[in-house]
Amino acid sequence: MGKPTPENVAEQAARLGRSITAEQARLLSLYLDALLKWNKAMNLVAHGDWTRVLSDLVADSWHLADFLAELPVAAEPSTLDLGAGAGLPGIPLRVFWERGEYRMVEIREKRVAFMRYALSRLRLARTSALGCRVEELPEELFPVDLILSRAFRPWPEVLAFALPRLQANGLCIILANAPMPDDMAEAPGWRSVGSREYETGGKSRYFWAFTPESASR
Ligand SMILES: C[S@@+](CC[C@H](N)C(=O)[O-])C[C@H]1O[C@@H](n2cnc3c(N)ncnc32)[C@H](O)[C@@H]1O
User: Is 56 in the pocket of ligand 1 (CB under 6 A)?
Assistant: First the structure.
């Protein structure tokens, strides 16, 4: 389907069942264009075909924006996106969900450079890329309201990392390829506040949302 022009992006999104605004199409077009160019020189995403990137990766972010809209998230949340790689889910997410201060954390310098380049083109409000290990984030950033993780580490490790770093009523959201397990023994200190199954790229995907057990109900 040609290049990821705003018109083509909007058309492809519509085929995936998502009606997007002209501004969202413009921003996603800039992101996809940058991603495909940089992907030739470095390994950012598996597909060189932008329509696959849209259906397999970017679509997660618009579904996530819908899921966040239904959750009890702070009005202006401070959010951390752990191991964001090429800015996923963060950069497309910010096209659909603009609340609060959003920080993507990534250890690999070239990926951080890509995110900063993409951010300089999209000019997304209150969105930044931090180049460090998640374990080395400055203390003053914590506690945060929201922690997101897609393909970063096994979920019990993500939750163990998040627990001491979240606000009392904060949320941790895992983007997963399987339904939330019934047995939460691997996640002591947490309770589920909901999950969502959705379909994209012909596959079922899931969001799992957790809050610290001590949070008020
Ligand atoms: C499999 S990729 C997933 C990237 C992105 N979240 C996505 O869904 O496409 C995991 C990313 O985490 C980064 N990473 C691994 N360990 C890290 C750490 N301790 N701190 C920050 N980033 C880390 C890797 O460099 C890699 O870019």
Answer: no
